[in-house]
Design a protein that fits this description.
single chain; alpha/beta; Helicase, Ruva Protein, domain 3; 2 domains; five-stranded parallel beta sheet; two-stranded antiparallel ribbon
Length: about 325
Amino acid sequence: MYNAFFQLAQRPFEISPDPSLFYATPQHQEALAGLYYGIKAAKGFMVLTGEVGTGKTLVVRCLQELLDKNRVTYAYVFNPRLSSQEFLSYVAEDLGLSPHPTTKSDLLIGLSRLLIERHRRGGMTMLVVEEAQHLAPVVLEEIRLLTNLETARGKLLQILLVGQAELEARLDSPTLRQLKQRVALWFRLHVLSENETPDYVRCRLKLAGDKRGGIFTAAALERIYRYSQGTPRLINTLCDNAMMSAFALRNERVTPELIEEAASDLGLNRVNGNGHSAAEGVRWPAGEEADEEEAASFATVLEAREPETHGYPELDSPEKKESE
């Protein structure tokens, strides 16, 4: 709507997670590189947690783009409020198991054979569960049992649980201690700091095609942090609304008054202080110690990032480029 007015190629603050607009803070980049490493090394079971709107789904979408689509097959569970039978059926259906078994025993046998066959052909299989804090204990137990599918050299199914902070409390339950002990990698995302928030806004604008800069005044950027408290989803909503207002008024710059108006419309009227986010919430590895070779591989992925553009490079193997 306002792209032409601000000379942008696309809308910079869409709510839906768009990998082309990925802003790689140290914590987001470390989570992305760490999950990439975990899948390539067939670690088996990983967890990504964070508060609402901190970019968990965007990290997962970026991860899917980095991995070779010709070699990695996904099952993506976006609604985890399922029984154990429904969960297994959904996963089997999403992975293309055919004919589709009806009994639980046949489902497990079919999944096992499918994973073994894909592994034999050099492929990888990944299960991503969003909103995992809503998983029933019986389904979490099924997931634990799925981690038993392995060869002598690694896990046949790479599992990533993505959820809010409540997921940590769930996994801390004594009844789930066996599952928690199997977590190989665990990453936590936090809100952006006061210094990161203006960089986030400028980066999204630049990736969307802004060549002039200065669309948001310094005072407007300060207001954005005060009302969003560094939550990327709220930053996007505030900025998008303020830019629409600026466009309607034919203002080439977004002022603090427009941010105030947008915040009021969205009900973001509480202005409180907030601590800086940092990458210390990231834990790597968990559950087992990495040897020196694995640690060096992980460090290489981290060093490959492009801090100037806050983007991420193609991290996949040479085979991917040949296949393309």
